[in-house]
Amino acid sequence: MVRYRSRVAVVLLLLPVLGVAQNAEQPAERSIRDLFDQGYTTLQTDPAGAIPIFEEIVRLDSANLLAQRQLGSLYLGAGRTEDALERFRAAYQIYPSDTTGMQIAFLLNALGRNMEAYKMFRSLRRSENPEIKDIADPATTVLALMLCAEQFPWWAKVQAYPLYDSRFDNFIFPLSLYAGQYLDSSRIVSVFGVLSVTQDTRTEGGTLPIIFSDNVALAAFGLRTVPVPGLVTDIQFGVAVGLTDRPDWEQVRWDFRAVASYGNGIFPDLRMPGSVTVRPAFFADVYTSFGYYTRYSNGIGYLQAKAGVRFLEFRYSAFDAFARIDAAIDTRGDFYNNIAEASLGVRFIPNHWWGASLALQFHRGVYWQENQAENPHEKYYNSVRVFLTFDRFLCW
User: Which pTM was predicted?
Assistant: First the structure.
């Protein structure tokens, strides 16, 4: 009987406590519901004013998935990208959906945290949602190429532009390999070394050389600056070895050059459809450079502008059609360095990851300088050229 009475006493003592706890939960639940109502009402007319309301909801209930995602969207709309990322990551921990993961990947990319973005996009390539997978596939490829270009402190790049020119029935093979080190984390200034070689199939040496292209091997080092994206300045010093026996040239010559170049453009979004897709996408780009070269005792400038349409895509491949203009000018008045050309062409990209393309171009050109006395060719000319281009940063 004593034991029974003690149990009753304990229950009677706990009842007020349980009642208080129950009453405390109900106002909190009502408060969050009220805050949601207030937040969504405010959101209709004042998105910025809704932010503190949803912040209060998250403070009261950090496991509320809807509140975390809504607050992340509001931060994003207010330009608070870091805060938005934090909220979407909190939502992903509560419920790891592919939709939230995609949002996190885009935010990481927007913040320049491309390695983290790459890892998230790569995981989303296994998504069962085909729309998410179709976005993650090209994003992974693009970011992989960007990561190659963003390596620090070392960078390396290979460029090869072999071509066939029907006008002279000539194959030309230029190849360059660069390796450099950035001097600070801004990646604006770097020192580099370069090995390059150019050879063609028609040039002949001897007492009366027949020259179609500069056949030379070059080893050099230099200083490169990239003050703004697309603008590159190189100051380079090295030694050039002629690959053709020419009585008018020394076989081994010092080579100094100072070159400034700029390239930029509008490029089509990278898409990787699972079937052959005809979906035109416009692109345009421009490249220009001017430099002084001691080996030629000459200043030479180039301009290239191109505009076209990407008209066919399938997985990692694409076909383009384009129109292009090219021009060259020099300070000595050499006829072969003062030309203008217009061309039409098509280009096949077998795999975006390779950094390679094959192009067929139909050219109409003119030696535009007034003095044509040294020119053994017609002033106007036609040519069909086939270009195999390989240009990309190397990864390790």
Answer: 0.76
